[in-house]
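Hi Y.,

Following your request, here is the sequence exactly as I used it, all 253 residues.
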Amino acid sequence: MYGRSLGRAIRLSCLFLGILFLVIGGRSIWQEAEATQRYVALAAEMSQPSSEGAEDATGGTDGSDENGVDWASLEEVNPDVVAWLRLDGTAIDTPVVQGDDNDYYLHYDFWGQLSYVGCAFADVRCDVDGDNVLVFQHRCTLGGGFSEIYAAWDEDVFDGMGTLHWSTPGLGTKDFEPLCCLRVDKRFADIQQFSFSTDDEYEDWLRTLVAQASVVSDDAEELISGSTRAVTLSTCATVQVGQRWRTLVVFVR
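Below is the corresponding structure, written out as tokens. Let me know if you'd prefer a different format.
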């Protein structure tokens, strides 16, 4: 009798936990979908430049810069905004913020709301117009965030990426080309260098990354020799939550 009652209690507990997990999972997916759509709508509102040096048809009188990014409107929503990035060959088209630490925007979106999607953010140690800008964003279940590049260590995914258009209030829009992709531990030290004393030091740093990369551009040496700056995009390298592996995609100009 006791055994049957215990078995029934266990089955009911398992059923309850299963329903609870479904509810929580469904809620997180709904929230992710909602946040992703907000970013899509925001990107549609922004008159994004298609290439370096593109003209703003409005002449900047609406608060836009000469390349069409409406910084005034973005800063009204979130004064932490420091850049806008768009990656050809993907749907990545998003504002970039920079907070007081490297944790807050993992959990809060561009509008300051608690979010599973968070917001793309520059490492707090970076200068967004500096030598190496490191930008983090989640790999999301429904394809938002940096999901499209989480497997860029695969050659087919890497080859599908195009030019990264990086816009800032200080320098306007600059174009960066994909150099390499690494799959590394989240504590990977080599990527955490953000300024360089000489051109040779910078180029040696890029070659160090290329030597450890899973995929490298066919034009790597040419890209390195003519490069002066890098933007690195970072996201989770697996579909499992809580893993240590990160995907780093390095773009140079």
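The longest strand covers residues 172-185.

Thanks again,
Q.
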